[in-house]
Design brief:
The protein has twelve helices and eight strands. The chain has 288 residues and is of the alpha/beta class. The protein folds into two domains: 118 residues, Glutathione S-transferase Yfyf (Class Pi), Chain A, domain 2, CATH 1.20.1050.140; 148 residues, Rossmann fold (3-Layer(aba) Sandwich). It is globular and about 60 Å long.
Length: 288
């Protein structure tokens, strides 16, 4: 099987381990990633500040490149990129003026026919959980996971059966043999967008997430967003439990966990790049 792939800037820079582990996961699933040739930055949130028009043009150029490559199904693992490109495609579907303006600027006329996947609905609908379960070689037994959707994932409706109490992420984790713990913060914001302007707010939000996951008796977080991963991972150093003890909870990409469950040895998944080292935990569960 083959699917189009838009990695985006984060997966080629600060979130290399997400890209590395996603490719390893797909190899083990027998899926070929057809990367969009010469893709460009989608602009995400920063571009909206300077130009609403440019916030459509940048994602639109990637839609054009995908169409010219004959891509009909496209995986976009970064929720920020996903929202940007999906939002532009939706605007072309619903707003003829936006569609015509983008044609005027780029010379490309958008047509229907591209299905965009988030990582979670990619596993549910393209791979299927049943097929993935058959391929599991090393069940993640004994691992207690706090799944963390984050807030950006909520803007992509295909991921959710219930916007307030989604369960898809949990079902993926349980398919791998791990336990998805019950905890209250799975769709709350971690504050990553305020990291530079209001670090005080970010510290409070991350502290609440850490405390909630700890109360749920989680061993680690599983995440699907580069911003959430880096924020939860990096901020733990400055936050302590009520007892005064520091937090040390690994923040692991879902793709890393899937690849491990599918039989990857774990030495080429970018686990060494995580600030809170997940390897001691995984070794204690006989998963490495």
């Amino acid at each position: 099987m083959e699917i189009g792939y838009y990695p985006g800037c984060s997966l080629r820079s600060t979130a290399r381990e997400f890209d590395i582990s996603l490719k390893a996961m797909c190899r083990l699933l027998g899926i070929t990633l057809a990367e969009i040739p010469d893709w460009i930055c989608c602009g995400t949130s920063p571009v909206h500040v300077s130009s609403q028009e440019l916030s459509y043009v940048l994602p639109y150029k990637n839609l054009e490149k995908a169409a010219k490559q004959g891509i009909k199904e496209l995986l976009i693992p970064c929720p920020s990129c996903l929202y940007s490109i999906h939002h532009t495609q939706e605007a072309c579907e619903k707003d003829i003026e936006t569609k015509n303006r983008l044609f005027e600027i780029t010379g490309y006329l958008w047509e229907r026919g591209l299905r965009i996947y988030h990582l979670l609905d990619f596993l549910r609908d393209f791979v299927t959980l049943e097929d993935m379960k058959e391929k599991v070689k090393r069940p993640l037994h004994g691992l207690k996971v706090a799944v963390y959707y984050g807030c950006l994932t909520r803007f992509f409706p295909a991921v959710y059966e219930d916007g307030e109490q989604p369960e898809l992420f949990e079902r993926v984790i349980e398919t791998l043999g791990a336990e998805a713990v019950s905890w209250p913060g799975k769709i709350d914001c971690c504050g990553a967008g305020l990291s530079l302007t209001r670090p005080d707010i970010v510290k409070r939000l991350v502290g609440e997430l850490l405390a909630g996951a700890k109360r749920g008796e989680a061993d680690c977080f599983a995440v699907v967003c580069p911003l959430c991963q880096s924020n939860l991972d990096l901020r733990q150093r400055g936050i302590t439990m009520p007892s005064g003890a520091p937090y040390s909870m690994p923040v692991i990409y879902l793709t890393q966990l899937v690849a491990l469950a599918l039989g990857d040895r774990g030495d080429r998944l970018g686990l060494e790049k995580l600030m809170v080292d997940a390897r001691p935990l995984l070794k204690s569960k006989n998963l490495l």
